[in-house]
Amino acid sequence: MCKIESCSEKDSGDNSDNKKKTFTEKVSERLKDIMGEKGIDITRLSEAIGVSKSTISRYLKGMRVPKIEILVKIADCFQCPLDYFATSENYEEGKKFSPCPPFPERFRFLFEHFHKSRYALCHGELHISESVLYNWQNGKCMPTAENVYKMAEFFDCSMDFVMGRGD
Q1: Is residue 107 part of a domain?
Q2: In which domain, by residue range, is 71 found?
Q3: What is the mean pLDDT of each run of 10 residues along the chain (167 residues)?
Q4: Residue 147 covered by a domain
Q5: pTM, to two decimals
């Protein structure tokens, strides 16, 4: 795991303005903010997380959202919570994050811990198909970063809690 000095708190503006942005726009803006704040260029971040410079460029231009596995690597490098990239919330510096457990285990834990049903996740506000949930539960694929954000809202917890990085 790489370490780029921990993120400092930053006021990213009015919450209502941030709510109007798409998930992709929020991630792009926050990634630009933290890279600028830390003086990290595309080349250095690319090397630190093991993706191409063109991929980082697409994230910064809002053309693509990092896969959740890559967003975790980015958050680990900057030692910041995943929610930093999806919200305008500040966070406390120096917090330690745990390595993510296998997602199928974590996914089952979330439903048990919060006493929620898969039916509610599928047929509630999120409208995530049962086949997608099946694939997550059985390790056939990972949720997108945006779906992790939606699950955090559904379970009323942080993205880090959803992924098992922290509370």
Answers
A1: yes
A2: 15-86
A3: 36 44 94 94 97 97 97 95 89 86 95 88 81 93 95 94 92
A4: yes
A5: 0.84
Count: domains in the chain: 2
Rounded CA gap, 161 and 19, in Å? 21
* 2 inside domain: no
Q: How big is the chain by its Cα radius of gyration, in Å?
A: 16
Which residues lie below 8 Å from residue 86, measured CB to CB, with a gap of 6+?
A: 23, 26, 27, 30, 145, 149, 159
**The token pair that represents 63 in the structure block:** 């053309």
Tokens standing for residue 153: 């809202």
Do residue 59 and residue 109 come from a single domain? no
DSSP tag of 124: S
Distance from C-alpha of 45 to C-alpha of 108, rounded to nearest angstrom: 33
Q: Same domain, yes or no, for 20 and 71? A: yes
Token readout for 39 is 């003086």
Provide the pLDDT for residue 92.
80
pLDDT of residue 1: 41
Region label for 47, one of left (φ > 0), alpha (ψ between -120 and 50) or beta (otherwise): alpha
